[in-house]
Amino acid sequence: MSDLNIYQRINAVMTDCEYLQKKKADKGKGIKYDEVIAMLREHLIKHGIVMVVNQTSMECLAGVDGTKQKIYQGHYTMDLVNMDKPDEVVRHSAFAQGMDGGDKGPGKASTYAMKIMLVKGFGIETGEDEESRAEKIEGDELISKDQAAEIIKGLVQTESDTGKFCAHFGVKHISELQARTYKRALSMINAKRSN
Question: Domain boundary at 85, 111, 130, which?
Answer without folding.
Answer: 130
